[in-house]
Design brief:
Aminopeptidase, alpha+beta, 29% helix, single chain, 7-stranded mixed β-sheet, binds coenzyme A
Length: 154
Amino acid sequence: MNNLVIRQADETDIDAIARLEEICFATPWSRESIRQELTENKLAFYVIAELDGEIVGYAGMWLVIDEGHITNVAVLPEHRGKHIASAIIAVMIEFTEGQGIKRFTLEVRSSNEAAKGLYRKFNFKEEGLRKGYYQDNGEDAVIMWRDPSEPLKN
Ligand SMILES: CC(C)(COP(=O)(O)OP(=O)(O)OC[C@H]1O[C@@H](n2cnc3c(N)ncnc32)[C@H](O)[C@@H]1OP(=O)(O)O)[C@@H](O)C(=O)NCCC(=O)NCCS
């Protein structure tokens, strides 16, 4: 049986998120940055995905007035392709829209086809480029905004 739960993250999740960062990103956020996000940053909203009790994914968003800025989304490699990230994004958008967030945006590496595909599924469109944004390899960041007139699809 696969039981997927999407819930708000709290400080007991710091280690699990740090582990996901290490596994999923070339330049992971430090444990200290994650701790600050979960305990000090009043604009931050983080969610966790638990599959049969195991933390397998997470995502974060900064709520800036009426805009939601997605900071990170990650799913453990062995659990990708099961629509777990889609479930996370759907819950985040639905919940934060209920809190008054009207527009959503993010930056993604131009080579990250999986992430761009995920965001396109939620009606994010490529609307700009930050040239050489990523310091590790000089890659461009694609700026995506979600078309607010489109309903959520999942
Ligand atoms: C991006 C990521 C979060 C997607 O997680 P996931 O749970 O596998 O995604 P889903 O199963 O919900 O897929 C949603 C959609 O994304 C797209 N997608 C997912 N993986 C893809 C891949 N490898 N290639 C192309 N498109 C892909 C598809 O459009 C998919 O929809 P579909 O299955 O209906 O066709 C995951 O690959 C990951 O953790 N990557 C490393 C971290 C990262 O790059 N995060 C994003 C930058 S912040």
